[in-house]
Specification:
By secondary structure, the chain is α+β, with helices and mostly antiparallel strands. The protein is built from three helices and seven strands; from the N terminus they run αβββββββαα. It has one domain: Alpha-Beta Complex (Peptide Deformylase), CATH 3.90.45.10. The chain is globular. Bound molecules: zinc ion. The site of zinc ion (ZN) has 5 residues, from α2.
């Protein structure tokens, strides 16, 4: 178990397409454990492997742990594929651990059905709606190298990217001072 560094935009590493996992081995389970630790520490509700430098089709999520009772209900998805999605969309204000402190309203299909391998390599299907559906679609975009800011107008996107570059420069300055 370990907390990894999360890559942030505009790091070109985040733009690549992740490759499928051949088999859910012990190494992949360790990766999923590390991803979950990193996500809880960040804190966030979803993380794709590419965000910590492993361009593999692996996602972890837990949309309920930040509720009042704080109960952890992690989901693990290996090689997820969306089989069905509704035409009806819903809108959530999305953020991303790779786009720190930036938020925007994004429309996505309200419900979807996802086939995937679970933590133990078993074939599974999830019917997701609401926040769960939005989150899995956001994470699956990472596997294609897509960030939520890619859905915004070029003007808005460029503004966000400029802010991110500026804050990266500031944080590296701080490191030198320390
Ligand atoms: Zn994200």
């Amino acid at each position: 178990m370990a907390i990894k560094k999360i890559l942030t935009a505009p790091d070109p590493f985040l733009k690549q397409i992740s490759t499928p996992v051949k088999e859910v081995t012990k190494d992949i389970q360790v990766l999923m454990d590390d991803m979950l630790d990193t996500m809880y520490d960040a804190p966030g509700i979803g993380l794709a492997a590419v965000q910590i430098g492993f361009p593999l089709r692996v996602i972890v999520m837990d949309i309920s742990w930040r509720n009042e009772d704080g109960k952890k209900e992690p989901y693990f998805f290996v090689n997820p594929e969306i089989k069905v999605k509704t035409k009806i969309t819903s809108t959530y204000e999305e953020g991303c651990l790779s786009v720190p402190d930036q938020y925007a309203e994004i429309d996505r299909p309200e419900e979807c059905e996802v086939n995937y391998l679970d933590y133990n390599g078993q074939k599974s299907t999830l019917h997701a709606e609401g926040l769960l559906a939005t989150c899995i679609q956001h994470e699956m975009d990472h596997l294609e190298g897509i960030l939520f800011i890619d859905y915004l107008s070029n003007l808005k996107k460029n503004m966000i990217v400029k802010k991110l570059i500026k804050s990266k420069k500031q944080s590296s300055k701080e490191r030198i001072v320390a």
